[in-house]
Design goal:
By secondary structure, the protein is α/β, with parallel strands linked by helices. The protein is 34% helix and 16% strand. The protein has a single domain, classed as Rossmann fold. The protein is built from six helices and five strands.
């Protein structure tokens, strides 16, 4: 699988790069809908946006071998090496994952775990938006993911700009059918261009 962006929008007079990273294995569902809406809203404000689907990439889980710490190189030769340059060049990351047992998907967690073996200095100053749909009826179900991302941002010197929560997303089209959720996602995309 090549890392050709799923979405690219460009307005020449502004150049803030926004990278959407979808952690759901289900294409066209609520997570991707939220990430797409945020990216499209940011593009309307002048951002350059790209989207990556983690489930379509080969990103192996961390083996806790510490080779990255000893040699500066991960034991895995997989798609994370191709994804990292996009992450480094993007000022904003839109991270989307649904709730699986009060946590992120396996694809998303494996991706996050592999940050241990990269040059984390290049993550400093990144702006983060998280998009979290869930079947549960309130945002309490997302508290562990929110806390995890907040702690990661604080540890790595990144800024959590916005959190888009979408509770009660029972069907794959629930997000599209909720004007409140869509308005929240669009507002987050607009906020990207005004966050520093």
């Amino acid at each position: 699988m090549s890392l050709n962006p799923g979405t690219v929008n460009e307005v020449p007079y502004k150049n803030k790069h926004v990278l959407g990273i979808v952690g759901s294995p289900r294409r066209g569902g609520n997570t991707e809908t939220l990430v797409d809406t945020i990216l499209n809203s940011a593009a309307e404000e002048g951002a350059i946006s790209e989207k990556i689907i983690l489930n379509e990439l080969d990103i192996a889980p961390c083996q806790a071998c510490d080779r990255c710490q000893r040699t500066g190189s991960c034991i895995h030769d997989d798609d994370l090496k191709k994804l990292l340059p996009l992450m480094y060049e993007s000022e904003v990351w839109v991270l989307g994952t649904p709730i699986y047992w009060w946590g992120p998907t396996a694809q998303f967690k494996a991706f996050i775990d592999r940050w241990y073996g990269v040059d984390q200095r290049k993550f400093q100053g990144k702006q983060i938006i998280i998009a979290i749909p869930m079947g549960g009826g309130n945002g309490h179900y997302a508290r562990h993911i929110i806390g995890m991302i907040e702690d990661i941002c604080n540890y790595l010197g990144m800024t959590l700009v916005d959190t888009v929560l979408a509770p009660g997303m029972i069907d794959r089209s629930s997000a599209r059918e909720s004007s409140h959720v869509m308005d929240s996602a669009r507002a987050a995309g607009m906020r990207i261009m005004h966050a520093y």
